[in-house]
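INTERNAL AUDIT FORM
Audit reference: QA-55
Scope: verify that the stored structure record matches its stored sequence.
Auditor: D.O.
Record contents follow.
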Amino acid sequence: VCDGNKLMAAGLPNIDTLGARGGNIHSDQEYMLIPSLLERARLVARILIGLAEGSIAWQITKPENA
């Protein structure tokens, strides 16, 4: 679960779940897994390169229940 769900429910397009992995979100026990920072940075880089090169198509869609 992440805040992107709230944005989509409000009709705001977003790319979700690209942040660090971890657990206990929004609590005083929230944590992140440090190795996931590099993993996510690589993922974001691949997405941005794909968009720039045109190998990844971009389409904004609105969720059916929003």
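Auditor finding: record pair retrieved intact. Residues 51 and 57 are 7 Å apart (CA to CA).
Action required: none
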